[in-house]
Amino acid sequence: MSAANVAGGVLALGLLVYLFVALIKPEKF
Question: What is the structure's pLDDT at 28?
Fold first, then answer.
């Protein structure tokens, strides 16, 4: 895997976690 693939994967995972938390605890956003 290239560095770009790893960075993209981490970014996508972080975005998914952010959206999940935003759905579960909307009062914090």
Answer: 65
